[in-house]
Design brief:
Structural class: alpha+beta
Radius of gyration: 24 Å
Number of helices: 8
Largest sheet: 6 strands, mixed
Distance between the termini: 50 Å
Oligomer: single chain
CATH superfamily of the largest domain: GHMP Kinase, N-terminal domain
Order of helices and strands: EEEEEHEHEEHEEHHHHEEEEEEHE
Strand content: 25-35%
Shape: globular
CATH topology of the largest domain: Ribosomal Protein S5, domain 2
CATH architecture of the largest domain: 2-Layer Sandwich
Length: 422
């Protein structure tokens, strides 16, 4: 077992390698104060067949024993992830996903298990660091490392990973992640602050990130495995040339159609016709042809934006689609509104409840309540698709939390407005 230490926000962060999860491709135990997170990185030995995407899964496991609690309810064991756990998993996923090789199709799973938690030392920051570190010391192809920190703004000064007491006085709760050279992810909630302060906070956080990246590079030199040579999916150059010759000009014309529904129908018809045209000569290359067509369309749109300074529907880069708003469209609800921008629509319904309707948050921290709840749903029909209606997915939970965080500073306190708002 090897141990490495660094100072982070005035507290000691320790990485232990080789102590636990020895059969994973990579695993580290991260100790940040009394917060302890085990993070593992595991990859399949062969690419997944029949997929045209990178199958990465990030799981953030909250174990109630980490806070000295027994789960509530009748079953007395952890079940599906909480909303906070889903948000933490998404927080880890975003900065690491772009750093795998293009065309890499092996299943990769990151599991961050919170084993002990201290409120002053955020486990999600330790988990993000651990995910990058586990990948860095593993043999999984990964173009990292990355790191993330939380930045607070208290009495005109920036603070790295503020304690629980400091967070209560902070005007900013910003999480920034990145590599040594670039900022890759920013998530924040704040009181009303200037853009200059927020930008300075990002740069302040990135300076600390660079230290953490160098720290991981030193760990890799000491105990990192030799990286695998990835089996990367590549399309046939001959097939790509034929598909481009057959479909690129027509896709360019169709992409410039200003009506979205008509444009989508034209592009879909061209793709179906192209696949049918090459079906006899390349019967097993349907997914490959579809991927070529996707990259052709992507290249056309990018060229229009970067060189012609227009969008596919003909709008300038700073031109907003027509916007309209209606309120009071549902008769028996407490409040309703319909926001329309082009063909994008959002129907919002507000309900007021008593204080007793607050949501009780029983997680790894002290039990708290929420009197403002912002729930987001993304049904299949909103994008013209037929798909099963299921409970909210990770993206829906994430988007709801984004809107909730943006609006919460404008919501009156429970003392001034003693109602629960959903």
């Amino acid at each position: 077992m090897q141990s490495f230490e660094i100072d982070l926000g005035g507290r000691k962060l320790t990485v232990e390698h080789g102590k636990m999860a020895k059969q994973a491709n990579g695993a580290v135990l991260v100790r940040y104060g009394d917060t302890v997170v085990l993070v593992t990185a595991t990859a399949s030995k062969a690419p997944r067949e029949g997929v045209d995407f990178f199958p990465l899964t990030v799981d953030y496991e909250e174990k109630m024993y980490a806070a000295g609690k027994i789960p509530g309810g009748f079953i007395k064991r952890e079940g599906r992830p909480s909303s906070d756990a889903v948000l933490c998993a998404r927080l880890i996923d975003r900065p690491i996903r772009p750093l795998f090789p293009d065309g890499f199709r092996n299943d990769v799973q990151i599991v961050a298990t919170v084993l002990s938690v201290e409120q002053d030392n955020p486990p999600e920051i330790a988990a993000m660091f651990g995910a990058s570190c586990a990948l860095t010391v593993s043999d999984i192809p990964f173009m990292g490392p990355i790191a993330g920190v939380r930045v607070g703004y208290i009495n005109g000064e920036f603070v790295i990973n503020p304690t629980e007491e400091q967070r209560a006085d902070s005007d900013l709760n910003l999480t920034v992640a990145g590599s040594y050279d670039a900022v890759m992810m920013v998530e924040a909630g704040a009181n009303e602050l200037s853009e200059e302060i927020v930008l300075d906070a990002i740069l302040f956080g990135h300076a600390e990130i660079r230290r953490l990246v160098e720290f991981q590079q030193n760990i890799q030199q000491t105990c990192g495995k030799e990286k695998q040579i990835p089996s990367v999916f590549k399309v046939s150059e001959e097939l790509e040339e034929k598909v481009r010759s057959y479909a690129e000009a027509r896709l360019d014309t169709a992409t410039r159609n200003s009506d979205k529904l008509s444009r989508d129908a034209d592009i879909s018809a061209i793709k179906e016709e192209t696949i049918a045209h090459f079906a006899e000569e390349y019967p097993d290359a349907v997914k490959e042809i579809a991927q070529i067509l996707y990259h052709i369309e992507k290249g056309i749109v990018r060229h229009m934006i970067t060189h012609e300074k227009i969008r596919p529907d003909g709008r300038a880069l700073d031109e907003v689609r027509p916007v309209s708003c209606e309120v009071g469209i549902l008769p028996r609800v407490h409040g309703s509104g319909l926001f329309t921008r082009g063909q994008t629509q959002v129907l919002t319904v507000t309900t007021l409840g008593a204080i007793g309707d607050e949501q009780i948050i029983d997680g790894l921290g002290p039990e708290t309540t929420k009197h403002y709840l912002h729930h987001y749903n993304f049904p299949g029909y909103s994008v013209g698709e037929a798909r099963p209606m299921r409970s909210p997915g990770r993206r829906e939970i994430g988007h709801g939390a984004l809107a909730e965080r943006a609006l919460f500073p404008m919501i009156p306190s429970i003392e001034d407005f003693p109602y629960t708002i959903r």
